[in-house]
Design a protein that fits this description.
heterodimer; A: about 375 residues; Serine Threonine Protein Phosphatase 5, Tetratricopeptide repeat; three-stranded mixed sheet; about 65% helix; about 5% strand; elongated; B: about 190 residues; alpha+beta; Protein Transport Mog1p, Chain A; three-stranded antiparallel sheet; globular; binds zinc ion
Chain lengths: ~375, ~190
């Protein structure tokens, strides 16, 4: 009897803190509810997103991610759409209506399919648990929404057809509460395990992110961490949840994940380099090397980070990375050009000329061939 | 950036025409001796707008703009906002390849997305051997821009004129006028 009372009390408490009950599969909120308003806004944003120039449209990669998402989502598969967006840095998000965003920088950082499943499971948790419609959360962002609606109402939307998308993106950056994050984590782990993925993969994502960022939590590279609890606290919570899981499956699907990523990987690496956040990017590349070994692209782009940073030791470190890249299969011809640029800056014209010539030989149709020939011509004598 | 375009739009609307000066079709000197002459009237924003030495537009900065970098010396960034970052400083011994890379980073820091910076090619600018490269990017609001940068390093200083406009309309519509500005460029320094 006392046991029953305790259960009832727990249910009541849970009811108080959890807000809305989970959304059943293939269900839309009541048209009269506030939540339906959120959905409509999200649908508008999704329409814009479908036309967004930053959307990665490669059908193979989209099909692959979609398949993983369906495996994880199970009965919710028809309710979610995954959008892959080209941008460096680590971010993912979920809109109220089931539109999920995964940024290319996150795909670059994930090791395998199990880690991708962890992200999808977590974001799905925010959807099923209806966190975007939660009252407490809405109260926190309410004033901002009003401000935005005011701006939109003043006709700026005429100049800015995708303002709804911008608004939604802004809302998505608002932190969920710690309780909501834990709930999304727990949900995600259960879905992962049910789909056969090793749940420990969820912990690894946060550990890697923590290593990459060091003490810089919120930055341009990391919006996900800026809106989510500190990695250490998160790891402990996840480990507790994992220990409580009834099954401990082990699937990782490393090869399949990396094969899907392969056609895009060099471009995603270049996106990270361009941000010129050398400390973070070198830590990221170090992690990628530890996970996958060194390949020519990774060695080349590591060289680029050093070259663009240009500290005392960097020219030397860059040259060493380019040499490594050139020893590996499928080395990019641009490594020769970069050696040329550094040698030229060092005043070693002979070496610079030789490297530029090698670049032109290995890439005779290079679009910058005329420019590189001009560099060679400009270094006469010595 | 999500906010940037909106804020800018609002700013443009609010600012009315108070601080925006028309540039007539006459010779104008910008920054450290970059002289240009337009083939039509441009709207000029105050120095420092978008962090450049001058920003001109036909239909409004969110839709098209010419940015001028007029005599950037060694050790200074292309744009004011990057002053604190050493790796974003212009170096007078930079090649066009490195200047184009710097441009790409500045676009990324302005939260442009889907950035493509084309290969630089040799081009005479203001009578000096210089370079040209194209670029494109998308704003977070989903507008795609094309752009074109032409410049040269003269006596250790960078002179550059970059024109950006929406791919759908403003770039093709105003490129001839921007090109006229670029062709008219002169660098007024001791040779
Ligand atoms: Zn979350």
């Amino acid at each position: 009897m006392r046991g029953l009372a305790l259960v009832i009390l727990l249910l009541m408490l849970a009811g108080c803190s959890a807000g809305l009950p989970p959304l059943p599969p293939q269900t839309r909120p009541d048209m009269q509810s506030d939540e339906a308003g959120f959905w409509q806004l999200a649908e508008k944003a999704e329409t814009a997103l479908r036309r967004a120039p930053t959307l990665i449209r490669d059908p193979d990669l989209n099909r692959y991610v979609r398949d993983v998402a369906c495996k994880v989502a199970g009965p919710y598969c028809p309710d979610i759409r995954v959008y892959l967006v080209r941008a460096p840095g680590l971010n993912a998000g979920m809109q109220a209506n089931g539109a999920m965003l995964i940024q290319s920088g996150l795909l670059l950082r994930l090791r395998d399919e199990a880690q991708l499943a962890a992200i999808i499971g977590h974001e799905l948790g925010h959807y099923v648990e209806r966190h975007l419609a939660d009252k407490a959360w809405r109260a926190r962002v309410g004033s901002d929404i009003l401000a935005w609606v005011t701006v939109l109402g003043q006709g700026v939307s005429l100049r800015e057809p995708n303002a709804a998308a911008a608004l939604l993106a802004e809302l998505q950056l608002r932190a969920f509460s710690r309780g909501q994050e834990q709930a999304a984590d727990a949900f995600g782990l259960q879905r992962m395990a049910a789909a056969g993925y090793a749940p420990i993969a969820a912990v690894e994502i946060w550990q890697s992110a923590a290593v990459e960022l060091g003490d810089r939590r919120a930055s341009v590279v990391n919006r996900l961490l800026a809106t989510h609890p500190a990695p250490a606290a998160r790891r402990d919570g996840l480990l507790e949840e994992i220990a409580a899981l009834p099954v401990q499956p082990e699937a990782r699907s490393y090869v399949r994940y990396q094969a899907a990523l392969a056609p895009h990987r060099a471009a995603f690496l270049a996106d990270e380099v361009r941000l010129r956040l050398p400390t973070e990017t070198l830590r990221l590349f170090q992690q990628l090397e530890e996970q996958h070994g060194l390949d020519a692209d990774l060695a080349f782009y590591r060289g680029e980070v050093h070259r663009l940073r240009g500290w005392q030791d960097d020219q030397h470190l860059a040259l060493r990375s380019y040499a490594e890249a050139l020893r590996l299969p499928q080395s990019p011809a641009a490594a020769h050009r970069s050696i040329g640029l550094i040698s030229r800056a060092q005043g070693d014209w002979q070496r610079a000329r030789a490297a530029f010539v090698r670049y032109l030989i290995s890439e005779p149709d290079a679009p910058d061939a005329a420019m590189v020939r001009a560099y060679i011509a400009g270094m006469t004598g010595s | 950036m999500r906010v940037w375009l909106l804020v800018l739009s609002v700013a443009v609307i609010l600012a009315g025409c108070g601080r925006i000066q028309p540039v007539e079709r006459e010779q104008v000197v910008i920054g450290q001796g970059l002289s240009v002459q337009g083939s039509r009237v441009w709207n000029q924003f105050p120095t420092g707008t978008l962090g450049a030495d001058a920003a001109w537009t036909q239909d409004g900065l969110p839709l098209d703009h010419v940015l001028f970098i007029a005599g950037r010396p060694d050790g200074e960034p292309l744009f004011e906002r990057s002053r604190s970052r050493r790796s974003l400083q212009f170096r007078s011994n930079m090649t066009a390849t490195e200047i184009a890379e710097l441009w790409g980073t500045e676009l990324a820091l302005g939260e442009r997305q889907q950035i493509e910076v084309g290969a630089p090619e040799p081009k005479v600018f203001a009578g000096h051997s210089g370079f040209h490269f194209g670029y494109s990017y998308a704003t977070e609001a989903g507008l795609v821009f094309d752009g074109s940068a032409t410049g040269a390093v003269v006596a250790g200083r960078l002179y550059l004129i970059a024109f950006s406009g929406t791919r759908a309309h403003h770039y093709p519509a105003h490129w001839p006028a921007a090109q006229h500005l670029i062709r008219s460029a002169q660098v007024l320094v001791d040779r």
